[in-house]
Amino acid sequence: MSGAMKIRATAKDGIADIRVLMSHPMETGQRKDAAGKIIPLHFIQNVTVKLNGKTVVEGQISQAVSRNPVFSFRARGGKTGDKVEISWLDNKGETNRIETAIA
Amino acid sequence: MKRALQLCVAGAVLAACAGAPVEQRPVLSENDLSEIHAVLKRDFRARGSAGMARVEPDAVQRLCNLHDNVPPGEAAQAIEAEQLRAIKFPEGSLIGDRKRGQRIAQSGRGLQWTDAPGEAGGGSCYNCHQLSPQEASFGTLGPSLLGFGKVRGAGPETQKYAFGRIYNSKAYSLCSQMPRLGHSGTLTEQQIKDLVAYLLDPDSPVNK
Amino acid sequence: MHRLRHAAAWLAAALAAAAAPALAQDLKKEIQKYQQMIAEGSPVELFELEGEALWRRRQGPANVSLESCDLGQGPGVLKGAYAHLPRYFADADRVMDLEARLLHCMMTLQGRSRDEVTKRLFGNEDRLSEMEYLSAYIAARSQGVAMSPGTSHPKERASYELGRKLYFYRAGPWDFSCTSCHGEEGKRIRMQDLPVLSSPLAARPVMATWPAYRVSNSQFKTMQWRINDCYRQMRMPEPTYASDATIALTMFLTVTGKGEPYRGPGTKR
Predict the structure, then answer these.
(1) What residues of C are in contact with residue A23 (Cβ under 8 Å)?
(2) Is the CB of residue A4 less than 8 Å away from at least one CB of chain C?
(3) So what's the pLDDT on residue B76?
C-alpha cells in the first residue's frame, strides 16, 4: 500500500486550507529487522505543491519525518475550483502525485 | 456502602477505600464459576508456554471470585495460612543484588505466550508501583514503595516480609491484585532476593 | 527514633500529596495537547481507502466481492453498521461482532477457508491485515451514529451476561481479571490511564473510538486484537479469534458504552 495519497482542499475568504496524507515508510536507515539487518534508508526527499499549474511550494524533508507524513498548510489566493497538485519524490527515485479541485 | 466499609476495615487494599464503587458488579455464583470455566476451556487455546492448565482455578481464585474479592474472614485466613506455608523461604540473608533488582523491577517479561520459556522473567514492578524517585514512569495500581527500606530498615523480619510478599502476596491478603511472582514461577528465588535488595538496601535509589 | 522516622515519612507523604494535584493538572494538559496533535496527523484515511478496495475486490473460489455481505443493516449497507454491532444474526444463529461477521462473509460468500482468512489477523506498521483495513473502512461509515448494539434477542442478552461475568472473573497464573487493571477509578499502569470500563462514563468514549491507530508503533488495531493482547499480558492462554468469549466481552463493553455517538477510527498513543 506504499504510495497511496489522500487530499482535502477547501477555501474560505481567499485562503485555501490543504491537507494531504502521504503513505510512505519513511525509513531512517537506523532500524533493524527481525534478523538484525539494517532496514535501508527510504524516505520522501521532495514535496512539490502546484496551484493551477504553478509551483507554490518546493519542500525538502528528511528521514526525521515519521512514517505516513501529513502535510497541512494554508495558501493565500486559493479559491474554489482551483486545481491543487501535490507530488513527492523519494531517495529511491519513486514518485507519486495527487490532484484535486479546491472545494 | 457496607462493602466499602468492609474493605476499609479489612485494610487489605488501601486505595479501595477511596475508590468509587464499580457499577454492575455481579456476584458470581458457583454456577457462574462452572459456566465461565467451561467457556475458557472451549474458547481459549494453548500458545507458547501459556498452556491450558492455566485456566484451572485454585482455592484462592475460587474464594475471591465467589465473594467479589471480599471473602469471609475465617475462610480467607485458612487459605492465607496455607499459601504462607507453601512459600519456600531461603536460609540466611534474603538480600541479593540491588542493581540486578532494579533491572528486574523494570522488566515486564515472563510467562506471556510471546516470552521464550528459557528467558528470564521480570517483576513488572513499575507497572503498578512507584519505587525509585528517579523513575517517573510508574503505575498507581499498587501503593508507592518510595523509601521502603528507609522506613522499615533491613532486618531479618523485614527481609522475610518483603520476600514473602513478592513470592506470594495472597498469603498476606487473600484477594490482593498483586501477582504471586514466586508461586507462579515468574521469578526465581535469586531474582526475588535481588528485588528485596532493591527495596531494602540503604544505598538503593528507592531509599535515597 | 522509630517515631521520628514514621513522622518524617508521613510528612514526606503529605507534601507529596499536596504537590501532586498541581503537577497532575499540568501533566493532564500536556497529554491532551499530545492527543490533539496525534489526531491531526492520523493516516487512518489511507487505511480506509485500502479497506474500500478490499471490500470491492473479488476473492476466493466464488470470485465475489464482500459487497453483498450483510453487516446487520442489509446486504452491502455500511452506514451505521459498525455502531449497531455486536448483534444477533439469524443466518449464523449467533451473536457476532464486526470481525466475526466479516469472517462469516469471507467464508460463506467468497468460499474462502477459515485457515486462509485467519492466517494473518493482526498486521504491523508496514502492512495492516485485511481485517484491519476492512475494519477501518467500515467503522468510519458509522461516524456520528449512536452506539446501539443488539440488546433484545435472548442470545444478545446472554452474550452481554457472559461478557459481564468474564470482566470480573480472576484466572491464570497471575490471578488477573479485567478489573485487576480496569476496576478502580484514577489508576494507571506505568503512564497509561486505566478507564473503569464497567462504568458507562468511562466506556462511552472508549467504545466510540475503536478500532484505532496507535501512534507509538504506527499500527492499526481492532477490538479483537485488544482483547487478545490483554489476555496475553494477563498471562492467560490465547482466546480464539472471534470466539463467543471475545464477542461477549465486546458486547458487554459496547452495551455499557451505548448511546455514545461513534467517532472512530480513533488515534491513540
Answers:
(1) 43, 46
(2) yes
(3) 97
CA distance A6 to chain C (A): 7
- Domain B98-207 falls under CATH 3.40.710.10: no
Q: What per-residue confidence (pLDDT) applies to C170?
A: 98
- Residue B142 at interface with chain C, using a CB cutoff of 8 Å: no
- Residue C154 phi/psi, 5° resolution? -50, -35
Q: CB-based contact (8 Å) between C54 and chain A?
A: no
Q: Quick one: pLDDT band at residue C13, thresholds 50, 70, 90?
A: low
Structural domains in chain C, CATH included, are 41-268 (1.10.760.10)
A1, A25, A70 member nearest C41 (Cβ): A70
CB atoms closer than 10 angstroms to residue C13: 13
Question: Which residue did the predictor score with more confidence, C5 or B45?
Answer: B45
Give the separation between CA C171 and CA B58, rounded to whole angstroms: 9
> How many helices (H) and strands (E) would you count in chain A?
0, 7
Domains of chain A, start order:
5-101 (2.60.40.10)
Residue C5, pLDDT score: 52
Beta strand A5-12 with A15-22: parallel, antiparallel or unpaired?
Answer: antiparallel
| CA–CA dist C157, C150 (Å, integer) | 8
| ipTM value for the complex | 0.89
Minimal CA separation from A38 to chain C, in Å: 15
Taking only the tens place, the pLDDT of each residue in B50-77 is 999 999 999 999 999 999 999 999 999 9
Q: How far is C25 from chain B (nearest CA, A)?
A: 16
Helix or strand run (H / E) with residue B3 = helix B2-10
Q: Do C50 and A70 touch (CB under 8 A)?
A: no
Which of B40, B56, B129 should be substituted to probe chain C, the one whose Cβ sees the most C Cβ atoms within 10 Å?
B40
Give the model's pLDDT for residue B129. 98
Rounded Cα distance between C260 and C245, Å, is: 24
**Chain B residue numbers touching C175 (CB-CB < 8 A):** 60-61, 64, 170, 177, 179-180
List beta partners, residue C219: C214
Told to judge if C105 belongs to the known catalytic residues of this protein, a careful annotator would answer no
A96 close to A87: Cβ distance less than 8 angstroms: yes
Residues 6+ apart with CB under 8 A from A11: A17, A78, A79, A80, A82, A102, A103
Determine how many CB atoms are found less than 10 A away from the CB of residue C14.
10
